[in-house]
UniProtKB/TrEMBL annotation:
Pfam families: SEO_C, SEO_N. Residues 19-209 form the Sieve element occlusion N-terminal domain. It comes from Solanum verrucosum. InterPro entries: SEO_C, SEO_N, SEOA. GO terms for biological process: phloem development. Residues 426-656 form the Sieve element occlusion C-terminal domain. This is Protein SIEVE ELEMENT OCCLUSION C.
Length: 670
């Protein structure tokens, strides 16, 4: 004790020790599990708006929230407003009691324990501003509203504010600085992957600046508080800039490396892309709930990336039909999920972008990113550069283990819908290998009448043109065909990017009752499918030898691109079609009325082919042709390639067992 009497204690050192002890206590009562979750940025926006109406010094904040009043809260057992009210009550009561500042601060932190650090700051700030806002609301109304005047009297508020002019000015300045500090804290807490991407020194130093002097400065005068807090903000801003630079350098590489390795599941990939700032980054409007990425585990995930306006209305409805209303959806719908990831043309979100997103995302039967404007710039840049997003909608497919299996499955979705599951590039090749029904491929899902034509096995033709005189000539031929008693339904599909001419031609066809009428909207869907066929074929053209149907598709695409007037004739689910363009259409159809007898005997296709070739010989040539099962089992009458007469069908079985295989089999028997 005698030694201690001679020691001179430094008051500043003692104060520093007390603050360190207080910070340790605060850290102990902090709940690292963050049971209470709020959108702190959204609440801070409400605070900024409130201060804007109190003082003209506060400008209207730029925000991405169309409805900032609905602050999102999760896990809180009571209303957020009640929590803010409790904090404001503690502040007011302790101010009048003149108690121990550290003890009072600890009471506040116990109340705020389950919140994140950024939420603690903003909720406390909201409590202060709610008191201040109520004060200004009453003082502004006191001279013209009896209720305000009586309330002011009950609260014993001053009648004139001139005596408080300096204090109010200082308080405005203090709150402005507090808002600035809160924004810095939110920016730091929102940095992605801090523990992985930041140096340890950067984290420790920055967080120490956030914790320092959090209590003792409350005893200073208002202007001293402003000065002290401004210094802390400047220091924190500098440290935050250092952290942002480190993450800006390292985060893009982290994302690229993430897609270079395989994973156990898709959770790490989805977390880095969408869930670094929010535990519930997705919204499911069909179920009216928010979702976490854990609900996507063991699912194929399709990222629908587009501008906030997405598609035209007809494309949106068609996409819903192809995926959500598809007959296979009930069977495999739980195996995949679509997430809409809107990215605007510019780097920032406009009010129009935001309104488009809110309207559409509330209407879709699939998932959407809740706050797409909060996506990290490194994630957005990765999507633009590595996934080649150029503002046209794409569907990037992630397998159940987070691997990209298709950089754009959108054409598969338009063509086959849910049947394209799991939507990988290998699945696209498989579908083309199996595809043999060209008519169904062209019109699937566009109109129920067209679907019936296919299912009922009727002969029909699909044709396109922007030439009114050619259409009139074709209509005359169709009349002759019907007069001859030959059933051939006709479907006019217009032309790519139809204009007023298409409507005129449609009116002519309706008036003469010769064609099944499609609206211009459904015509656009046909050309959408045709464009998707073109894109898909271009990707798998190396597999063209697998399917004769693919060769027919290539001929159809050539006809549509090299001629304004074209036609494809087919029958129901048959694999046999005729593709005609230009004058070939009239030359072919002009023969049909004269073929009524042969049509009944040979079928429409065989009759047309016979008529377009040489006359039938008197006797059959007895030529044999062996066709693959896919072509040989067609429902159409098959004609001989030499004499053009209908052939009789036989089934041929071919043994493919090699000598080595036979020897192995004999060895097993022995």
């Amino acid at each position: 004790m005698s030694l201690l009497r001679g020691v001179q204690f430094d008051p500043c050192l003692l104060s520093s020790i007390q603050e360190d002890l207080l910070i340790m206590k605060i850290l102990r009562i902090h709940d690292p599990n963050h049971r209470y979750k709020i959108d702190a940025r959204q609440l801070l926006h409400v605070v900024e708006n409130t201060m804007h109406f109190i003082s003209p010094k506060f400008s209207v904040p730029q925000s991405n929230y169309t409805n900032s009043w609905n602050v999102e809260v999760f896990g809180l057992e009571e209303k957020l407003g009640y929590t803010i009210k409790k904090i404001s009550h503690e502040i007011l009561c302790k101010y009048h009691e003149n108690g121990d500042l550290h003890e009072e601060t600890m009471i506040l932190f116990e109340t705020l324990g389950p919140f994140r650090w950024d939420a603690k700051v903003v909720v406390t700030l909201a409590a202060v501003v709610s008191i201040y806002g109520e004060f200004w609301l009453i003082t502004q109304l006191v001279h013209r509203n009896s209720l305000a005047a009586l309330t002011a009297k009950l609260k014993q508020m001053p009648k004139e504010l001139n005596m408080l002019k300096i204090q109010l000015k200082a308080l405005n300045l203090l709150i402005d600085t507090m808002i600035e500090a809160a924004n810095l804290v939110l920016d730091f807490e929102g940095l992605p992957l801090q523990q992985q991407l930041l140096d340890d020194d950067a984290i420790v130093v920055t967080k120490s600046k956030m914790h320092s002097n959090s209590t003792s400065i409350a005893a200073w005068t208002l202007f001293s508080l402003v000065y002290k807090l401004s210094g802390l903000c400047n220091d924190l801003r500098e440290k935050l800039r250092t952290c942002q630079m480190q993450i800006g350098r390292r985060f893009p590489e982290k994302i690229r490396n993430l897609f270079k390795v395989s994973h156990f599941d898709n959770q790490e990939v989805l977390r880095v892309l969408f869930s670094l700032k929010n535990d519930l980054p997705l919204k499911d409007s069909s179920l009216e709930k928010y979702c976490g990425i854990q609900e996507l585990e063991n699912k194929v995930v399709i990222l629908l990336i587009s501008k906030p306006e997405l598609f035209t209305t007809e494309k949106i409805f068609y996409l819903v039909q192809r995926m959500h209303d598809h007959p296979l959806h009930k069977e495999i719908g739980g195996s995949y999920a679509i997430i809409w990831v809107p990215i605007p043309y510019s780097q920032t979100w406009s009010l129009t972008d935001e309104m488009n997103f809110q309207f559409l995302s509330n209407s879709f039967p699939w998932l959407s990113i809740r706050h797409p404007w909060s996506l990290h710039s490194s994630v957005v840049n990765f999507i633009r550069q590595e996934w080649s997003y150029k503002h046209e909608p794409v569907m990037v497919v992630l397998s159940t283990d987070g691997v990209v299996t298709n950089l754009n499955a959108i054409d598969m979705v338009w063509l086959w819908g849910a049947k394209a599951f799991p939507f990988s590039t290998s699945r696209e090749k498989e579908l083309w290998e199996q595809e043999n029904r060209i008519l169904e491929l062209l019109i699937d899902g566009i109109d129920p009448l067209l679907t019936n034509l296919v299912e009922e096995g009727k002969h029909f033709c699909i044709y396109g043109s922007d030439n009114i005189s050619w259409i009139k000539e074709l209509n005359d031929t169709l009349k002759k065909i019907k007069s001859a008693g030959i059933q051939l339904e006709a479907v006019y599909v217009g032309y790519k990017n139809p204009s007023k001419v298409a409507e005129i031609i449609l009116d002519i066809s309706i008036e003469e009752n010769l064609s099944i009428s499609l609206s211009t909207t459904k015509m656009k869907l046909f050309w959408l499918r045709l464009e998707s066929i073109k894109n898909s074929v271009a990707r798998v053209e190396q597999a063209a030898h697998y399917s004769s149907s693919l060769q027919k598709v290539l001929r159809l695409l050539d006809a549509c691109e090299t001629s304004n007037d074209w036609m494809i004739i087919g029958k129901g689910l048959s694999t046999d079609v005729m593709i005609l363009k230009g004058r070939e259409v009239q030359e072919c159809l002009n023969l049909v009325p004269e073929l009524a007898e042969n049509v009944a005997k040979l079928g429409l296709f065989s009759a047309i082919r016979c008529a377009m070739g040489s006359p039938l010989p008197v006797k059959p040539c007895y030529h044999n042709e062996i066709l693959p099962a896919e072509e040989g089992l067609t429902e159409e009458t098959v004609v001989c390639s030499r004499c053009k007469r209908p052939v009789e069908k036989f089934v041929v079985y071919q043994c493919n067992v090699t000598e080595s295989a036979e020897a192995e089999q004999e060895a097993k028997i022995d």
